[in-house]
Design a protein that fits this description.
The protein contains 7 helices and 3 strands, in the order ααααβααββα. It is mainly alpha-helical. It has 2 domains: 63 residues; 87 residues, Orthogonal Bundle (Arc Repressor Mutant, subunit A). A 3-stranded antiparallel β-sheet has the order 1-3-2. β2 and β3 form a beta hairpin. α1 packs antiparallel against α2 and α1 runs parallel beside α4. The longest helix is centred in the N-terminal third of the chain and has 24 residues.
């Protein structure tokens, strides 16, 4: 049986493939890879739920980490990139809509998404203009800088 950490790694790999496919404008492969990524995340969630809860240094259950919503950074960057497309940026409402359509982040709020971006060092702007609407999100330039930075840090 594959443990949840390996499922998350596989989901991240599939998200990378989806991102590359979008860059290459291979939308069919991108959709397939995104679906594989979502499936691995769902299996990871189930595998994690089946394991006993981690305990912190005092021996008490680590409830805070269990309640804090999170997804891998690569998946989040993939969702932001796909939502951004050719526009000025990715508005969080649109990111959550896309994620929900894939079975991810189904109960998340804009506040939770904003907090997760903060934890991952992704700059959030109060006003990103997309389709004549100004909403909270991540600007294209900031997203490109974060992706470039993460690409060079892995080498």
């Amino acid at each position: 049986m594959i443990d949840y950490k390996n499922r998350i790694r596989r989901a991240a790999q599939a998200a990378d493939i989806a991102h590359q496919a979008l860059t290459d404008r291979d939308h069919r492969l991108a959709r397939t890879a995104a679906a594989v990524s979502a499936a691995h995340l769902e299996l990871a969630r189930e595998a994690r739920a089946a394991q006993p809860m981690e305990e912190d240094w005092r021996g008490a259950p680590n409830v805070r980490s269990a309640l804090t919503p999170t997804i891998p950074r690569e998946i989040l960057l993939g969702l932001l990139t796909e939502t951004c497309g050719d526009s000025n940026g990715a508005q969080f409402a649109d990111v959550l809509e896309l994620a929900d359509s894939r079975g991810l982040l189904t109960t998340w709020t804009v506040s939770e998404l904003r907090a997760l971006c903060g934890r991952y060092g992704i700059p959030v702007r109060e006003s990103v203009k997309v389709n004549r609407r100004n909403r909270i999100g991540v600007h294209r330039a900031d997203l490109a800088a974060v992706i470039a930075e993460s690409g060079t840090s892995e080498d």
